[in-house]
Every structure is written in structure tokens, then in C-alpha cells.
Amino acid sequence: GVYTDPATSPQPGLILLDLNMPKKDGREDLKEIKADLNLRLIPVIVLTTSKEEEDIYTSYQLGISSFIVKPVTFEGLITVIQSLSRYWFEIVELPARED
What we know:
Layout: E1 15-17, H1 26-35, E2 44-48, H2 53-61, E3 66-69, H3 74-91
Parallel strand pairs: 1-2, 2-3
């Protein structure tokens, strides 16, 4: 592929992560993201169906920026995504990237 070197690959401005994915546990992904020098400073928002206090606590301990429980309806999910987008890309000042 074009981006074989993670150090030169484009980086996302924000990571949305579900804890309950079919093939891999999102908690493990979160640990890997926060251990990766190229990814660890990118804000991570957990958007998941879990309301478990342990998941919330552990996620914040691992360095997430926000924990949001997925709404039940698709319309509710769209509203949450729009609000997140406004917050992270219009309101919050993120540090400049070192490219």
C-alpha cells in the first residue's frame, strides 16, 4: 500500500472507538492506541453501548477524552455525531501536528 510506514502515514484528528466490536475488544485497541507513539496524543472518544461503570472508569484510566453511550435510534446517533463533530472540530483547540 501507499502508507506502509506509520510515521509518514496521515493521522486522524480524532478516533471514535467502540468497546464492543465483533472481532476485537475495543479495550485492547485503546491500550494499543495509547501505547503507540504515533497515535497516543490523538483524542479518543469511546462511543459504545456499554453503560458499565467499570468500562467507563477503565476507559478514562487508559486516557480517553470522552465516553458516550450510543443512543438507541439512528436519528439519536446522527445527533450525537453532529454534536461531537461541532465540539471537536469547531470549539476545541487541538495542538498543531508535528509533521
